[in-house]
Automatic annotation (TrEMBL):
Species assigned in the record: Branchiostoma lanceolatum (Common lancelet)
Domain named MAT1 centre: residues: 12-120
GO biological process: DNA repair; regulation of transcription by RNA polymerase II
InterPro entries listed in its UniProt record: MAT1_CAK-anch, MAT1_centre
Protein name: MNAT1 protein
Length: 194
């Protein structure tokens, strides 16, 4: 059986892809390093506890002091070590240290201003006020409107909304009177002269 192999072009990585791969590799290296460091820290902690235990046993065995005083001095020494021990700094994968002494700018104070008060918009339609949407059926405006389909109603459209919009457009501009401007006055005077 004859099989043809198509040579596919090698995919070249863009700068963004290279940067992402580099960041992923750095993060994996950091995670591996932090795991290794955590294991080492646990070993050191176990060794420290073993040393403290052995030291306590030696002090209890070979000291001439009463056991209560030896235990009290041992617990006091442990508390001092815990206070002296600084909190380990941990780095995020982005390189930002937690507790590393970074300083941030203070949050700017918000200027107190008057609270926002809603004022409904007013539209001057230059005509009579159309009837309210709740009164359309009572006044007989809905008798010649086609019913809205389920798809229209799913989108928020209702027959009353369409009727109300049509009435707004019909009433708009019924009282419109153009202003008499200097140009219109001149045109009227020119027409009278002719």
């Amino acid at each position: 059986m004859w099989v043809s192999h198509c040579a596919r072009p090698e995919r070249t990585l863009s700068k963004d892809d290279e940067l992402m791969e580099q960041l992923i590799e750095e993060e994996q290296a950091y995670l591996q390093h932090s795991r290794h460091e955590l294991v080492q820290q646990e070993k050191r902690e176990k060794q420290r506890k073993m040393r403290q235990r052995e030291e306590l046993l030696d002090n209890l065995e070979f000291s001439d002091l009463p056991a209560g005083l030896v235990l009290a001095s041992h617990t006091a020494r442990q508390e001092e070590e815990m206070e002296k021990k600084p909190a380990p700094t941990i780095k995020f994968s982005t390189g930002i240290r937690i507790g590393g002494g970074t300083s941030f700018l203070p949050v700017p104070k918000v200027v107190e201003a008057a609270l926002y008060q809603y004022r409904p918009g007013t539209v001057d339609i230059l005509g009579p006020e159309p009837p309210q949407i709740t009164l359309l059926e009572e006044n007989g405006y809905m008798s010649h409107m086609r019913d809205s389909s389920e798809v229209d109603m799913a989108g928020g459209y209702t027959t009353k909304l369409g009727c109300h919009r049509a009435l707004q457009e019909a009433f708009c501009g019924l009282y419109f009177v153009p202003d008499l401007t200097a140009d219109s006055v001149r045109q009227e005077q020119d027409m009278e002269v002719e």
